[in-house]
Amino acid sequence: MPWGQLEKDNWFKEQTIKRSYRDEVVSKIQRLSTNFDIQQYGALSLNPAAYPLYLLKSKKFSNTKKTILITGGVHGYETSGVHGALNFLEKSEPAYFDKFNFVCVPCISPWAYETINRWNAKAIDPNRSFKKDSPAEECQLFLNAIVSLNIPLFAHFDLHETTDTDNTVFRPALEERDSVKQELWPIPDGFYLVGDSDNPKAEFQKAIIDSVRKVTHIAPADSGGKIIGDPAQQDGVINYDVKKLFLCTGFSDAEYTTITEVYPDSPKVTDEICINAQIAAVQGGLNYLISQL
Which of 32, 41, 12, 128 has its CA nearest to residue 88? Predict the structure, then answer.
């Protein structure tokens, strides 16, 4: 039987705090106040003092420049997405900030960050919940915040990871929660992207892959030409119907969108390489967009 509220409550009680959102994330956000306006757009009702939610916006914001959105931590356990977003803002060349406006929400799911979870505290996957009247508080607060900015988005980079625990922890938990058999596929060893099947922007995705290739290896397709069960459209790229699935990159009408997927469990990488791969992905995409202006 699918889980009822009792099973969800029991699952929540089993979760433990494993790291500090305030020490590892909020402290880094606050260090960026010289170049970015920092806005608190809400807090998780589970513990508002522990889980404030932050958005960073370019101080030199101009209506004459196109706006780039960077998101991380939709799934809290995907560590390099959070720190890749923050490190990009801290370390990238000023030329990017002269060309574009930036809005960054580096950690959409702070409770999940601390407990190293895919789901939120109510056993909901945020990255299937970016829709009106979302069941995930994290998603609804984010959507409200972005709508309130009233800014058209040119591009959206959503930074993720695919980990071994997808097969050992999270998909088995999903099968148990929903009482629906879940297909398992080999976790690809390397970096890949998820584009939008309705708006694939193949050259944009290729530019990102080529940039990341200088930092880490790209995930090969399996013997059936697939990556995590979906056909590879080009080297290291698959496409999803992001709007139909209510993924984060599907909430807006941004002209360019991509979801990065780093593989942190590869013996070929370190935590630093994973973060640098996220930075290279954003930079590669921005370099392409600059060439199209």
Answer: 32
